[in-house]
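A common beginner's mistake is to predict each chain separately and then try to dock the pieces by hand. The better habit, illustrated here, is to supply every component at once so that their relative placement is modeled jointly.
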Amino acid sequence: MGTFFEMGGYAAYVWPAYGLATLVVVGLLVLSVRRLRSAERMLTLLEQARRERVDDGPDA
Amino acid sequence: MHRFANPARFMRLSARLLPWLAGATALLLAVGLYLALIASPPDYQQGQAVRIMYVHVPSAWLSMAVYGAMALASIAYLVWKHPLAGLFTKAVAPVGAGFTALCLVTGSLWGEPMWGTWWVWDARLTSVLILFFLYLGYIALVGAFDDAERGLRVGAVLVLVGTVNLPIIKFSVDWWNTLHQPASVGRLDGPTMDTAMLIPLLVMALAFTLLFAVLALVRTRAELTWRKVEVLRLFQAAGE
Amino acid sequence: MALTRKRRRMVWLGLCAVGLGTATALVLTAFDDSLAFFRSPTDIAERSVPLDGRIRLGGLVAADSVERIGDGLTVEFLVTDTAYDQIVRYEGILPDLFREGQGVVAEGMLSPEGVFVADTVLARHDETYMAPEVAEALERAGHGPLIAPAAAGVEASTVDDHYGTDSLVQP
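With all components supplied together, the output reads:
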């Protein structure tokens, strides 16, 4: 098992490469989903506010 | 193409596709990592350092493919005024930049033990660095405009101007003496790579491609949603 | 036939693309020589490039050409492109992949005696990827030395060159 982590002596290069790849993949996914969710939340809020204004009506 | 020009239709289709794409991506990444780190042989000259290839090469391929997709979308946007194309281009630019950065850094991590240097200014590495700057330049340019549509149009022109860099990257190792070796896979007379290494490479490349598809759909949905938000905000401001 | 707006845009785009492509091609061919990352032994032997100042020399390390000289810290070897051989002298640690028959790029200056004194030596590997057992089989079948032993006198690599012929997971 130790030899696996040693990567033939190249551990200092192989593991950071895979670590960075994981960071980039996970980071892009997390940031993208968060961006979508916050847009959806904002849209819901605005649409709700708009409905309430329309319900109240100009002559309410 | 015109069938997919309808934003509402895109939202419905992407909602149905995403779970499947996400599942497939996770599966392929898991299989790819297992093949890359465990079930593939070391290289006869590079030893275990060759495993960096399974991350470096797919991100290199994707960094170029994403730019190519942005270029095609930019043509659709400028020529046919395709309503989704401009937003798609803006949405995927950070993904392309991420793949390019990953390609450059993993390349350095591979180059230091194998070549003996973290960086050289040869034609291949320099042109990929230029690609990275093109991505960053596009993101900055589009973000600088108050008028969103104008920003997308100017951005599309920048993308198209920079497209000339893609064949330069691809053929740099053939046209000029470079430290970076020539292609092992994208060649006319077949790959110069053992099947035992080619398979993990292709699996990882497919995994990255599906990942791009997931990110592209999520981020384009986000752009469309934000645009609706902007429209409602404008109505609200006008109404008050 | 009147050009529709869409057609006009396409024509514009096409013209710009052709213009940009041509301009780039012209610029690149003008710079062609200086974009080369290294010169070959032929370039040096035939003096087809300026030989003063720093140059990068690329080629293959000629077989049986690596020698330790002096107090053992300096190494001399021949870089060949099969047409010409160029002698290179280097003091320092050589990259892991440096060996006879392997590609190499040396950076330094040509001395008046015609010795290329390098301050940097980089290994250049080719586009072939093979498992060790495949390379061994090819060698046994007579396809020439693929896994060249580390050249005589060059300090042994500090990392494992082979991980055994099995995949990593030990049973």
